[in-house]
């Protein structure tokens, strides 16, 4: 298989990692393509199948697990499964591009362990758990229950930060975007 680089961005939900990943995807010199994950949850807001996620049923998801079609998968929240299909990475490598992932911390670390040399694993750190709560509420795409579930998970996720190659503190979004760009640029030019 082609040796395109793997760029992993992981963080608790609401840390701003998706915004940073979108910013990097706009930089042509990085030659990045987004790894579209499979997800068993319903689309939110403007999300589209085949662009943000491959939205599939829980049943289909379990079939893919059985078929060993995933590079990694996680039940990120109860009954919400997310995973990276092996075929997705092959698709991107066949285009001659580097892969960028927006995935949870466990999945991110799993990819780093599978491809240690090829992967840059970045953890995006929010200013505080309170700020995270504020951002998730502001986004208001989920019920209070779901927001609370995400916040409860955040503390556990924050503890994994030292296992990543680099930590970007997202206290100011423009600074974090620029820092991410420089990091990825250095890594893909190696
Ligand atoms: P959301 O529901 O907010 O889109 O995503 C929930 C969490 O699942 C986020 O932390 C997101 O990064 C993570 N996630 C998305 N795709 C994948 C994947 O393929 N694998 C893993 N392990 N996590 C994922």
Automatic annotation (TrEMBL):
Compartmental location: Cytoplasm
Keywords: ATP-binding, Cytoplasm, Kinase, Nucleotide-binding, Transferase
Binding-site list for ATP: 11-18
Gene Ontology molecular function: any one: kinase activity
Top-level class of the enzyme under EC nomenclature: transferase
Database matches in Pfam families: Guanylate_kin
SUPFAM superfamilies noted in UniProt: P-loop containing nucleoside triphosphate hydrolases
Family matches, as InterPro entries: GK/Ca_channel_bsu, Guanylate_kin-like_dom, Guanylate_kinase, P-loop_NTPase
UniProt-listed Enzyme Commission number(s): 2.7.4.8
Domain Guanylate kinase-like: 4-185
Tagged with keyword Plastid: no
UniProt keyword annotation of Flavoprotein present: no
Catalysis performed (reactions): GMP + ATP = GDP + ADP
PANTHER family for this protein: GUANYLATE KINASE, GUANYLATE KINASE-RELATED
Record's function text: Essential for recycling GMP and indirectly, cGMP.
NCBIfam families the UniProt entry points to: guanyl_kin
Family: Belongs to the guanylate kinase family.
Protein name: Guanylate kinase
This protein's encoding gene: gmk
């Amino acid at each position: 298989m082609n040796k395109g680089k793997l760029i992993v961005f992981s963080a608790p939900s609401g840390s701003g990692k998706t915004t940073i990943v979108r910013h990097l995807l706009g930089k042509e010199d990085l030659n990045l393509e987004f790894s579209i994950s499979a997800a068993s949850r319903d689309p939110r807001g403007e999300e589209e199948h085949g662009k943000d996620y491959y939205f599939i049923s829980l049943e289909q998801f379990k079939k893919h697990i059985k078929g060993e079609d995933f590079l990694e998968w996680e039940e990120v929240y109860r009954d919400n499964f997310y995973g990276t299909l092996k075929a997705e990475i092959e698709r991107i490598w066949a285009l001659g591009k580097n892969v960028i992932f927006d995935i949870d911390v466990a999945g991110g670390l799993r990819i780093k362990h599978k491809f240690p040399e090829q992967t840059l694993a970045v953890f995006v750190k929010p200013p505080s758990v309170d700020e995270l709560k504020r951002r998730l509420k502001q986004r208001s795409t989920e019920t209070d229950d779901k927001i609370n579930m995400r916040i409860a998970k955040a503390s556990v996720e924050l503890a994994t930060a030292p296992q990543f190659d680099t930590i970007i503190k997202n206290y100011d979004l423009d600074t974090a975007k620029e820092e991410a760009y420089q990091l990825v640029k250095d890594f893909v030019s190696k």
